[in-house]
Amino acid sequence: MNIEQSHPLLTDYAGLRHNTSDRADAAVIVSGTLPAELNGVLYRNGPGLFRRGAQVKHSLLDGDGVVQRLELANGQARYARRFVRTPKFIAEQAAGCFMHPTWTTRASAWRRNWGGNIPSQAGVTVEMANGVLSASDEVAPRFEIDPVSLETRAPFGVGLPDRDDGLKAHTRHLAASGDCLFVSTRMGRGGMQIDFMRHRRDGTRVATPTVPAPRMVYVHDFAATERYAIVALHPAFMRPLRFLTGFTSLTDSLAWRPQAGNLVLLIDLATGQATRYRAPTAWIWHFANAWEEGDAVVVDFVGYDDAGHFLGPDAQLTAVMQGHIGVPGAPGVLRRQVLKPGADHVEETVIARGNVEFPSVDGALGGKRHRRVYVNSSAPWAGALHSGVAAIDVERATTDAFDFGAHMHAGEPVFVPRQGGAPDQGWLVTETLDTRRNASGFVLLDAEHVADGPVAHVDLGEPVPLSFHGCWVAR
Questions:
Q1: In CATH, what class is 8-474?
Q2: Are 95 and 108 in contact (CB under 8 A)?
Q3: CA 374 to CA 447: how far, in whole Å?
Q4: What's the 3-state SS for 276-325?
Q5: CA distance 216 to 72
Q6: Quick one: CA dihedral 407, 413, 416, 418, positive or negative?
Q7: Cα distance between residue 354 and residue 216, in whole Å
Q8: CB contact at 8 A, 201 and 181
Q9: What confidence tens digit (pLDDT) does each residue in 162-190 have?
């Protein structure tokens, strides 16, 4: 075993795959100083239940969703968490076992896998849109969550076709209009179709005409401006027959064919007209942002040269559930694509090398030109595991980063704006898991001085699996 493979980040990961439980609202210990002007709530969501008896989820990405609530006010902190009470969770809790297939894990009863009917676990994102807090998964429906008690209220339909069955977990908030954009992908005999639904600030909803996709592939995220949506079709092709007949999970039905390259669709949100661009091969989980620059559209995202950390018989995110590190694959690299009218291919450049993921920008710049991208970071050999946070200045090509240490796992940094401040003035809040202490927490950093390290730390005193995504709701 070489030095990289024996590094603590790659050997101390057991806490990432342990079950958690509900926790009632209570004050928690804060070290350092929480800025007095911080007044709001951080919500986070991710899988928190990986095991029932001898049954174990196939991947670290797969588990019932648990929403966390961290309230910051007057220099104090309170914390609570609660599982989303989806019909799946309620039924399996009563039965004491996993009964239904999920996106990486087949049901033990083969008949339940037939037809590809995957119920929502509501375990990927949580966000506030038009005053409604909802938790979502890779399949519909979303579930409305009470913002104070975290109780699950009801399924939350966004108005997309086919009961929103192919609803994607990610949405885009557009700063200029205040609109929120939802997307779904539907697969059938005629191929894949893409639908968008725009929720305007005044409560009205506007649908984009259905867009036929030129290939049937897995899509996780997208980017958007006020006029356009950008969808990357990387070469992770669906083999639907294997999935629909129950022989594989959804993710195991994906075939990575890098020789096919990527296709990028630039979709007019008013007409549904799609312009197709060829692009270099890259696996893409997440986009940072996009904006219009003259007649061109610019998109920043994290891309991987291969999908080794996710797809394959010994992929890292699967191997961790089995007790070893597996194949970490290529590092995530922050990249930029420029989509110009009249061209048939994108212009792609690398903004920053290293190994990054979970890119985001100041929410006040959604769909607008941005200067800084906030990411998780780690060494190139670490794959999908991260121990640090960074702010990448895309104009000056500089990186302001802080690493929490070899025994620390770090989650997605959420930008919290300074009240009345300029763009990018504020803080980053990230979830951490300290494997030496077997304890999780939240760390606050100054977004303009990340390398200076934590401003404050909220200690939960217990381990919690790292959540995927979160949002800040100011008061």
A1: mainly beta
A2: no
A3: 9
A4: EEEECCCEEEEEEEEEEECCEEEEEEEEECCCCCCCCCCEHHHHHHHCCC
A5: 44
A6: positive
A7: 31
A8: no
A9: 767 789 999 999 999 999 999 999 888 88
Please give the Cα distance from 388 to 185 (Å, whole number).
33
List the one residue out of 245, 249, 213, 243 whose CA is nearest residue 231: 213
Q: What is the pLDDT of residues 443-462, one digit of tens each?
A: 999 999 999 999 999 999 99
Indicate the pLDDT class of residue 3, thresholds 50, 70 and 90. very low
What is the rounded average pLDDT of the residues 208-233?
A: 97
Residue range 6-65, pLDDT digits in tens? 678 888 888 999 999 999 999 999 999 999 999 999 999 999 999 999 999 999 999 999
Separation in Å, CA 27 to CA 22, 75, 153, 313? 15, 12, 25, 44
Residues facing residue 40 across a β-bridge: 72, 474
317 half-sphere exposure, CB direction, 13 A CA radius: 19
Nearest-angstrom CA–CA distance, 42 and 72: 8
Cα separation, 17 vs 47, whole angstroms: 9
Q: What is the pLDDT of residue 14?
A: 87
Peptide bond into 141 cis (omega under 30): yes
Token pair, residue 52, equals: 């029932």
Identity at 47, one-letter amino acid code: P
319's CB contacts (< 8 A; 6+ apart) are 325, 326, 327
Ramachandran assignment for 317, one of left (phi > 0), alpha (psi -120 to 50 degrees), beta (any other) = alpha
Separation CA 173–CA 199 (nearest Å)? 10
* pLDDT cut 70: percent of the chain above it: 99
Within 10 A of 159 (CB to CB), how many other CB atoms are there? 13
